[in-house]
Write a structure and sequence with these properties.
With 192 residues, the chain is of the alpha/beta class. It has 5 helices and 8 strands, in the order βββαββαααβαββ. It has a 5-stranded parallel sheet. It has a 3-stranded antiparallel sheet with strand order 2-1-4, covered by helices on one side. Strand 1 and strand 2 form a beta hairpin. Helix 4 packs parallel to helix 5. The chain is globular. The chain starts with a strand and ends with a strand.
Length: 192
């Protein structure tokens, strides 16, 4: 599978954010989508996901692809968790074939056991980010699109999280949308 972004332009509120952007993402690619705040990183991910339409240009899925839109595990900038559900419930709900036991096995790699069963609204921001990251990584998908997935993490936790993402991705493409590249030097850079 290849995602082709071709000459994409997109304005928001009368201001052109993306201008003639062209980019290809293939299976096995690992990209760092970077640029300053408000450069359009999140907007470009939303265009790839089909959540927004470009003003001009196109986003195409090339090859023998079985879906009409990209099948991606996604970390959005906002956490998008079910606030009264536990971390286990939030992770297990995204995959009908995934048991709460398997969700717990993944979560305990990053969170203390006693934090797994309380409502996620009681978790701190970094713990919430870890729940979202794990959830995105265990969804059956062809690509991981991760918008600021490492936000708030210290260097050691960030390193562990990156290793986890890479392990779970296997041969899927990965796009990290981040302003900084600490720990992501192995990625190809696409700068906005």
């Amino acid at each position: 599978m290849t995602i082709q972004v071709e000459n994409v332009c997109k304005s928001v509120g009368g201001q052109e954010i993306l201008k003639n952007i062209s980019w290809e993402i293939s299976s096995d690619d690992c990209f760092l989508l970077t640029g300053p705040e408000k450069s359009g990183k999140t907007l470009l991910l939303r265009l790839i996901l089909g959540l927004e339409k470009p003003d001009s240009g196109s986003v195409n899925l090339l090859g023998d692809y079985k879906y009409s839109s990209v099948n991606a595990g996604v970390v959005f900038q906002e956490d998008r968790l079910c606030e009264q559900f536990s971390a286990i419930e939030n992770v297990a709900m995204v995959n009908a074939r995934l048991s709460e036991r398997v969700a717990e096995e993944e979560l305990v790699k990053f969170l203390p056991q006693e934090r797994l069963t309380i409502p996620v609204c009681e978790l701190d921001p970094v713990e919430r980010r870890l729940v979202v990251m794990i959830r995105a990584c265990i969804i059956p998908s062809d690509l991981l699109l991760l918008d600021e997935p490492l936000r708030g993490m210290n260097e050691q936790l960030r390193s562990r999280a990156i290793a986890y993402i890479r392990e779970k991705a296997g041969h899927k493409g990965i796009v990290f949308a981040q302003r900084d590249d600490a720990g992501l030097e192995f990625c190809r850079k696409f700068v906005l």
